[in-house]
Amino acid sequence: MRSRDCKIVATLGPSSDPPERMMMVIEAGVDCFRLNFSHGSKDEHAKRVATIREAERRIDTPIAIIADLQGPKLRVGDFVDGGVTLRYNDIVTLEASREPGDGSIIRLPHPEIIETLEEGDILKLDDGKMQLTIVGKKGKQREARVDFGGVLKNRKGVNVPSRRIPISALTEQDRDHLAFALDQGVDYIALSFVQSADDVREARALIGDRAKIISKIEKPAALDDLGEITQLSDAVMVARGDLGVELPPEQVPIAQRRIIRVARILGKPVIVATHMLESMIDAPTPTRAEASDVATAVYQGADAVMLSAESAVGRHPASAVAIMDRIIRAVESDPDHWSNLARDAARPEQTTADAIAQSAHAMAEVLDARKVVAYTATGSTALRLSRERPRCGIIGMTPRIETARQLCLAWGVTSVVTEDASDTEDMVTKAEACVRRLGAAGKDDRIVITAGVPFGRPGKTNMIRIVRLE
User: Fold this and answer.
1) DSSP 249
2) Which domains does the chain have, with CATH numbers?
3) What is the pLDDT of residues 12-21, one digit of tens each?
4) Which pLDDT score, from 0 to 100, does residue 24 have?
């Protein structure tokens, strides 16, 4: 078992696909793999899933898989000459059309954008390299002033930070990829372009209980509906790439802190992603600023931090994971880290499950217990304990491999697949054997066990047992 609480997610790609490379990345500290459906074929992703499951069998440890859907990509159309030069303070015309643009006319194959735009709205082009401000309306056209110029080429991206675009978060391609990913048995679906809670509801209707949903918070509109989006999701991701394009740069750290706090209050795992160790795409070590960035996410209480291009196409995928692992361990050895987590603890709800989780945490602290062991069928008990952030960590014992994999994203949880307990004595025997096998506790150590009576019935956590190992 890993001696750290914050988890590591790594994106698979050419650099980490070969089985021997993937094993190196796992041994370096990965808990969960991300498949980026913006790139790669179905065959490539199927091979990745098969390789992960084979590695999981070899190491006898659950590994979670995230299928990250591309979502709608809003882009400008083509140009007669392949591009157009935008100069500061020029006025250009925007119109909805699939015909090539020419001169001062920029055509967008997205009528939803044009219909939404009003005077004063801002458009960012090519990942924020250029910016336009709408200054007038002429029927179905919009006049825009160039704030930041440059060369705008065919099919570059468009972001509209100030408006909610009336389109679904799931394109037809996403629906096809979603069905494929579910057939492959992935554990999480990461939903891009989430603007409101309705986007999560739409995805839930398609996914059902076949996988958990991670809502990627990358649109300012999502921040306006953050509480309900997080409540309806199984986890959230601070997707700082697009969020950094649509928000002023000074607002991104504030948004990150807010998303983490809301997720912690609601007891949902939260991943901080994008540009974490970006320089390690080429360099063997990160910059000091990148190390501080990872550390900040850990100090703030993130459940997981994620590598993107660093592990997918970078030259040093295993080294990037190993360095991220070292940064996390360093933060978690800092006493201030634990005082910060205690300060940000959420108030428990008036439920038996919350009362049990808070009590188990308090008992573990008072008794200096080595582990809290949670018997859990669906994972909800382990997640409630994870929200408490017990210093000793949690072992989630479950009869379902799907639950064990999904708990790989939860802070402080080591998941173990085991048969459910038949009675109280069997519960203690299995828990003792598990902590000994994992090297988590030994003679005279105490563990705190939570479970539900009658055994084998989900949603019935109602018992705490303190055990001293003999």
Assistant:
1) G
2) 7-71+169-341 (3.20.20.60), 83-159 (2.40.33.10), 352-468 (3.40.1380.20)
3) 999 999 999 9
4) 97
Q: Which residue out of 216, 370, 371, 387 is catalytically annotated?
A: 216
- 274 an active-site residue? yes
Burial class of residue 373 in the structure, from the number of CB atoms within 10 Å of its CB (0-12 exposed, 13-18 middle, 19+ buried): buried
Of 275, 330, 341, 335, nearest in space to 303 by CA: 341
34 included as an active-site residue = yes
CB 26 within 8 A of CB 60: no
What secondary structure letter does DSSP report for 250? G
Stretches where the chain sits below pLDDT 50 are: none
Measured distance CA(105)–CA(112) in Å, rounded = 18
Smallest Cα–Cα separation from 455: which of 380, 399, 387, 373? 399
Tell me the whole-structure pTM to 2 decimals: 0.95
- Active site (annotated) includes residue 51: no
* Pairing of β 304-307 and β 270-273: parallel
Question: Tens digits of per-residue pLDDT, 131-183?
Answer: 999 999 998 899 999 999 999 999 999 999 989 999 999 999 999 999 999 99
The phi, psi pair for 69, rounded to 5°, reads -75, 150
Give tens-digit pLDDT for 406-435. Answer: 999 999 999 999 998 999 999 999 999 999
- Is 93 known to be catalytic? no
